[in-house]
Please model this.
Amino acid sequence: DNQVAGVIYATGGLITALGFNLLWRYASHKCRLISKTASEADIQKITRNYNIGFALYFAAFVVSFLSAPLTLLINFFLALFFAIPSRENSIARIETS
Model:
């Protein structure tokens, strides 16, 4: 039962990550839905974070077939990765304020 729950949970995370990646790609392509003044460096940082997140959600999905606890651990660190702003993003926010 734990494995089935882990697979379902990881699948939900993977689908969500895919949706966010597709939305970001559409929004950031030629600044369709973001400010034209957004710096290319900031766009690349966000893109990199989404790429890392998607890869880790995919890893959690694959691992979910082997170990439910490890799947939950990966997802816990993913939550921290997206919840805690990186230092470079914090500095960018302070400079624009």
User: Anything to note?
Assistant: The chain has a mean pLDDT of 88.
